[in-house]
Amino acid sequence: MSRRARLYGESGMSEFGEGTQADKPRPQPALIDVVGVGNAMVDVIGTVPDDVVASEGLSKGAMHLIDEERADYLYRMMQKMIDDAGDGVELVEASGGSAANTMAGIASFGGTSAYIGKVRDDYLGDVFARDMNSLGVSLGVPQAGGGPATARCLILVTPDAQRTLNTYLGVSTLLEPADVDPEMAASGQILFCEGYLWDTDSAKAAIRKAMDSAANAGRKVALTLSDPFCVERHHQDFRQLVSGPVDVLFANEDELTSLFECGLDEAVARVRQQVALTCVTLGAKGSWLVTDTETVEIEAEEIAPVVDTTGAGDQYAAGVLYGLSRDLPLPVVGRLGSFAAAEVISHMGPRPERPLSDFLDEAGA
After folding, report:
1. What are phi and psi of 95, to 5 degrees?
2. I need a surface site. Which of 44, 98, 223, 299 has the fewest CB within 10 A?
């Protein structure tokens, strides 16, 4: 069976699997569209001048792991800048994390989603749970009664709309296999895993358990590489996942070329032999949807001037995953991703302000 046939079986997405899948019992219908696994955190977003990123020794556009002391320092700095700016300008604070943002996007399209991630029973943990529940996203892990505080990501947005992430992972990294309910992991048509979470042994084991649960139930497994530095940290592990359980891969140009340590054309040629569908985002140039037999080129959509690129990749993934869960043609799947990304970069914050379902007809869904 070809990789494309694995993605689009005769009866739709539920028949995804290797050629031996026909010898196994037919999977039960999925209860929801997508289940996400990731670092549960609260996003704190503010606009800063370019020289602040440089003076703080940060790599513009990258994600930096920081400790709680550094997180407190950056928060105070951002708050002071916002206060000095006046005119009612405020920091944006909202439940976040890459996979959580994607699940919120799925809900905005009108789909159903659930989330596996860990927060504390503190103020920020309550904010996270309230926000996700208000969107209709089911949470699969109870709030922890001890340990580090709820994670947060301090996002410095420069005038060119680039975002530099400073992440205190807190209790989110303590996700462990016992936190993963196999039934929830297997309840969606697609299990979507966040590469950012691949930083501790317990979280790795939790992700592998979720992937195994989904695969054994005949579901599809999707992975986002998250960040070039993330790929560098976990290069060998990610290569094994891509050549193994991953059916749908999300990567930007830098992440994909870093994964295969070669130029973009060669990286695409290599990944199409390993993954049923690879979604390569190219910024203003749009994206490519790569299967074993074709590359579907998708143009970037324009809704309004770019304000903040935070969450662009997360919402692009939401559009693609929603489209795949509806068994839509690849060109439509890609356009859904482009519309979702265009909406979120038109304003501050990583979540849609306009319902993404507004774009279904325009995308041809």
Report:
1. -60, 140
2. 299
CB 193 within 8 A of CB 220: no
Q: Pairing mode, if any, of strands 248-252 and 277-281? A: parallel
Cβ contacts of 238 within 8 Å, gap of 6 or more: 195, 198, 223, 225, 231, 259
Q: How far, CA to CA in Å, does 160 sit from each of 47, 156, 157, 306, 339?
A: 10, 11, 8, 8, 20
* Amino acid (1-letter code) at residue 216: N
The tens digit of pLDDT for each residue in 120-166 reads 998 889 989 999 999 999 999 999 999 998 999 898 988 888 889 89
Identify the bridge partners of residue 165 per DSSP, sorted by sequence position: 63, 155
Task: Label residue 36 exposed, middle or buried (CB < 10 Å: 0-12, 13-18, 19+).
Answer: buried
Residue where the block lists tokens 């592998």? 208
Please tell me the distance from the alpha carbon of residue 209 to that of residue 171, in angstroms, as a whole number. 19
Check if the beta carbon of residue 178 is closer than 8 Å to that of residue 209: no
Does residue 62 contact residue 2 with C-beta atoms inside 8 Å? no
- The answer to whether the Cα torsion of 266, 235, 205, 68 is positive or negative is negative
Is 207:35 a contact under the CB 8 Å cutoff? no
Helix (H) or strand (E) segment spanning residue 106: helix 98-109
DSSP 143: P
Question: Within its chain, how far is the Cα of 175 from the centroid?
Answer: 17
Strand partners, 96: 41
DSSP secondary structure code for residue 274 in this structure: T
Q: Tens of pLDDT along 252-306?
A: 999 999 999 999 999 999 999 999 999 999 998 999 999 999 999 999 998 888 8
Q: Taking the CA of residue 281 as centre, how many other CA atoms within 13 Å lie in the half-sphere pointing to its CB?
A: 28
Fold topology of 3-9+31-39+97-148+171-363: UDP-N-acetylmuramoyl-L-alanine:D-glutamate ligase (3.40.1190)
- Give 327: exposed, middle or buried? Use CB within 10 Å, 0-12, 13-18, 19+: middle
